[in-house]
Amino acid sequence: MATPLSDPSLSPLRTIAVVGLGTMGTGIAEVLAKAGREVVGIDISEAQAAKCVAALESSTARGVERGRLTEQDRAEILDRVRTSTDLRAAADADLVIEVAPESYEIKQQIFRELDGIVRPETIMATGTNALSVTRLAADSARPERVLGLHFFNPAPAMRLVEVVSSVLTAPAAVTAVTDLALDLGKEPVAVGDRPGFVADGLLFGYLNQAAAMYEAKYASREDIDAAMRLGCGLPMGPLALLDMIGVDTARTVLEAMYAASRDRLHAPAPILKQLSEAGLTGRKAGRGFYTYEAPGSGTVVRDALTPLEGGNLVPGREIRSVGVAGSGTMASGIAEVFAKAGYEVVLAARSEEKAQTAKARIGKSLSRSVDKGRMTAEAAAQTLDRITPAGSYDAFADVDLAVEAVAEDLEVKRQLFAALDKVCKPGAILATTTSSLPVVACARATSRPQDVIGMHFFNPAPAMKLVEVVRTVLTADDVHATVREVCGRIRKHAVDCGDRAGFIVNALLFPYLNNAIKMVQEHYASLDDIDAAMKLGGGYPMGPFELLDVVGLDVSLAIEKVLHREFRDPGLAPAPLLEHLVAAGCLGRKTGRGFREYAKR
């Protein structure tokens, strides 16, 4: 079925010039032409202009093949686009969108020339994501008509458009381009002028920390990327995303952000400079953090850093039975995971009643799986039969692996590990599910620190595929090998990391959440606009404030305090707004109010 073209008569912006016909400029031209606008594509390179036309012809042909356009639609779209190598072709434009390279000199030259070409009422927009819109506007003869219009790549597919005002921008200009964005089927978000705006401002800080984590050899590139995809539901890992964006582009954005904020979290990781200067800029070069089949290809190929399949040569220990300590949601979920995989499970809590309640919770979970057709009633019954509830940790005497999932309190965990040390047989592996506490502190509470390791499951454990396997400096090789093997048997993806605060996921996730809070605290953007920007522009399954309210503001604050205490970076200090909300008892969905209010159940 063909898509109806929107009515351009509803907007005063009918003729639009796009200056710079690279990937982004070509995408914007396509969006505009499909929405009924007359488009003037301008590029200093005739070859680039021809490439733009060819791309539009190819894209619209695919639209016809897929039934999204008729042949008449296609002809009309192509007729609405003309190209030129001369800026004077923009003379009759109602709006000019500049998407030239990220350089003040280049952009300022374009704006100065346009001042002498376009009509006084023409709006001039820059597509920059790193440079100051105010600085570009101040150099213009009509600064009140200059603003930012930041599309996301690929422009035809990505719905987010950031509308960036400077202190000089006329409200009428903002209204006009906002209405245009809506008419294009986009989601406009109003933001102020600072490097990175909302989406890139949050995204690039996170990408920078991931690059620094890899540079420090804390975790492999594959494990960092898998952790963020599986632990946070992101469409791509941060290092793969840096390769797609362009390592050089990321470095440029971060340098602009750091110049404005002086926040060390924005200071580009040295590896970004090294890769950029070596020409290893990512997919476009055929090599960046990963190696690709060819320049421009998205297909990763093996290189010297690719881990070998089945590369672990250390034999593991035999695991037949598993003890799970705790009675909460996480403990129940972990017990269910092991029982489904065929292990005999002892589920121990501080009382028989708590253990029975936890087993009943697992029974309900298994029943839901049966109702949804994910397992048979017989399999569910057999799984539940493998779980033995116990009111004392003495029941762990014969288990081969003991996994604790009790309160996230170091003293509570240390006491538990001291108890497990006395109860569990020699050779049993003792694992903690902590998400933020030092695993080695738990290990030192025992007489066998070599047998202690971290197994950080994610909630809900039956659904989440990731387990962070955390080695301490004392963990034995065969213990690590055993836990990796067990993760495979319970159908989880194991990633290796060292014993430091936040491991991989939380160390990258919570600074990003903290920076989002700072944006609201500084009245830079609203909760709704930030959540929309990260979902639409970054591909996040939830916006940062949705996620904070789900996780719990008290839990988030505790993790951020641990990160700040360990890394001692001022940029990691918890946002005062988060501390104030926690002090007020606004902890998120569980209390009915966090960053937003929720209906009482």
From TrEMBL:
Give the Gene3D superfamilies listed for this entry: N-(1-d-carboxylethyl)-l-norvaline Dehydrogenase, domain 2 (1.10.1040.10), NAD(P)-binding Rossmann-like Domain (3.40.50.720)
Protein family: Belongs to the 3-hydroxyacyl-CoA dehydrogenase family.
Enumerate the Pfam families for this protein: 3HCDH (PF00725), 3HCDH_N (PF02737)
State the superkingdom: Bacteria
Checking InterPro entries in the record gives:
3-OHacyl-CoA_DH_NAD-bd (IPR006176), 3HC_DH_C (IPR006108), 6-PGluconate_DH-like_C_sf (IPR008927), 6PGD_dom2 (IPR013328), NAD(P)-bd_dom_sf (IPR036291)
3-hydroxyacyl-CoA dehydrogenase NAD binding domain location, by residue?
Answer: 15-193, 322-499
Q: Which UniProt keywords apply?
A: Oxidoreductase
Q: In which pathway does it act?
A: Lipid metabolism; butanoate metabolism
Question: Where are the membrane-spanning stretches?
Answer: none
Q: Which organism is it from?
A: Streptomyces coeruleorubidus
- Protein's name in the database: 3-hydroxyacyl-CoA dehydrogenase family protein
* Start and end residues of each 3-hydroxyacyl-CoA dehydrogenase C-terminal domain: 196-292, 502-598
